[in-house]
Amino acid sequence: MSCTREQGGVAPSPSQRLIAATLRGTLKSLLSPAFQARAPVALQRRWLATVARATLPARGVPRHQTRFAGVPVEVVGEGPAATLLYLHGGGYVAGSPATHRAITTRLARALDATVMVVDYRLAPEHPSPAALDDVVAVYRALLDHGHRPERMAVAGDSAGGGLSLAFLQHVRDGGELPPPAAGVLLSPWLDLTLTQTPRRVPGEAMLSHDWLAFAANAYAGERRQRPEVSPLAGDLNGLPPLLIQCGGDEILGPDSERLATALEQADTEARYQLFADRWHVFQMHGGVLADADRALAHITDFLGARFQAGQREPRP
Asked: I need a surface site. Which of 58, 125, 234, 273 has the fewest CB within 10 A?
């Protein structure tokens, strides 16, 4: 198998160019101050939560909080068609289910699915492997509650994208749990060593190399090269089909490029979609930015096809 590369977006209209410029400027002025290495973690978390309120969740999608295996989870949607395990971004030090509802509510509605957003423990209070342990515990509990793995997928953005890949590698290597049908990685952070992460990217709207170094240290300390922390260093063979999406103007872009290149030599089916002139996790702007809506539609089509294939395959 190989990794198929695609251009995810299309040439924007004049109105979309204006919208994109406004969104980029807003992120630089409002969100980038939250991602500063010198800012206290508590302030980073509050700031991100406040700015996230400006995004637009899909209307009419129910949600409630519960626990699986003792781990807090926000259940988004009530669709019976599938179950999506979603892992939010925030550099392992910030973020929550509440900050990513613009994505999770839209996926729940488009897929007619129930989205389980894991409120995993954050660093520095809870360094690695706390986050991965929480995700595995929730997945195991979902299976115990009768959720069928062929009708399940995992998705995540930024740190949550890296955590999603680490989770899939963990499930494969453990041999105890059946894997989900697919994985979706949005602007994933895959290499916490930062050895191939550029110091600056002209179009980057929110992240900085210094903040990434702070977050990596908080989460993994001096052991950032471990595959469970930097899954790009792990074995990429034998994983469920993957969809990777990345913007062309982000500091973590090389992580997605390197993953796509490595997957060309692996036996894992993968698609890599690059959206030119788009920033980190631009999918958060669904309902406003056309490329965000296109990206979410691609995710819906990709997962829908995998769920249908799982429905056709005989169960062992």
From this structure: 125
Residues 211 and 35 sit within 8 Å (Cβ to Cβ): yes
Angle (nearest 5°) at CA 183 between 140 and 173: 55
Matching residue, tokens 């890296």: 162
Domain that holds residue 297: 3-310
Structure tokens at 46: 């509050």
User: What is the total count of domains within the chain?
Assistant: 1
Contact criterion met (CB below 8 Å) for 303 and 84? yes
What's the CATH number where 217 sits? 3.40.50.1820
Please, what is the end-to-end C-alpha distance for the chain in angstroms? 24
Over its length of 316 residues, how does the chain's per-residue pLDDT go in tens digits?
Answer: 689 999 988 888 999 999 999 999 988 888 777 788 888 999 999 999 988 888 899 999 999 999 999 999 999 999 999 999 999 999 999 999 999 999 999 999 999 999 999 999 999 999 999 999 999 999 999 999 999 999 999 999 999 999 999 999 999 999 999 999 999 999 999 999 999 999 999 889 899 999 999 999 999 999 999 999 999 999 999 999 999 999 999 999 999 999 999 999 999 999 999 999 999 999 999 999 999 999 999 999 999 999 988 665 544 4
Cα(316)–Cα(48) distance, integer angstroms: 45
Asked if the structure places residue 315 within a domain, the reply is no
Q: Residue 84: beta bridge partners? A: 115, 153
Beta partners for residue 181, in sequence order: none
Domain annotation covers residue 316: no
